[in-house]
Amino acid sequence: WSDVEIVLTDHDRVRIIVAGVSREYSFAELGLEDKRRPGYARSEWRMLKTYAENPQPDAYHKLPHRKNLKIEISRFRHWLQGFFGIPGDPLKPFKSDLWLPNVNIGIDYA
Q1: In whole angstroms, how large is the CA radius of gyration of the chain?
Q2: Of 18, 54, 81, 93, which is least surrounded by CB within 10 A?
Q3: Region of 38 on the Ramachandran plot (φ > 0 left; ψ -120 to 50 alpha; else beta)
Q4: Cα–Cα distance list, 66 to 9, 14, 78 (Å)
Q5: Taking a C-beta distance cutoff of 8 angstroms, is the pair 52, 67 a contact?
Q6: 10 Å Cβ neighbour count for 63?
Q7: Model pTM?
Q8: Under DSSP, is residue 105 helix (H, G, I), strand (E, B) or coil?
Q9: Torsion sign across C-alpha atoms 45, 50, 55, 58
Q10: Which ranges of 18-110 would DSSP assign to H, the alpha helix?
């Protein structure tokens, strides 16, 4: 996971770099479009944006407080594992029940 970098380049696009290979995607191309509401992103995209826009470990505390936050974190984890196909956990605990990405996530709205 340390070779993975995700950089937000726009409000709905990212550049993903893995082992020096770079590609750009929209949230829909990543499979993160809400199927019930086309044009809207799923919670995994909002979580990715929150982690990108806030330095660690503050990012976790910027996530919206919801009763299903653990479920959303689980979905985010499963999406990362499914999209990248890399073994191991893409999230790391920094406190009991508090998780941060084990990948480099940033923002570059240049």
Answers
A1: 13
A2: 93
A3: beta
A4: 27, 25, 19
A5: no
A6: 19
A7: 0.85
A8: strand
A9: negative
A10: 43-53, 58-62, 69-84
Strands 21-26 and 13-18, sheet pairing: antiparallel
47-102: pLDDT as tens digits: 898 888 887 666 666 666 667 777 888 899 999 999 999 999 998 877 666 777 88
Six-digit token string for 109: 């709205």
**Mind listing the pLDDT tens digit for each residue in 22-41?**
999 999 999 999 999 999 99
Beta-carbon contacts of 24 under 8 Å, excluding residues fewer than 6 positions away, are 9, 13, 14, 15, 16
Total residues belonging to the chain: 110
The Cα 3–Cα 51 span in angstroms is 17
Structure-token pair, residue 24: 């750009």
**Are 72 and 40 contacting, i.e. CB atoms less than 8 angstroms apart?**
no
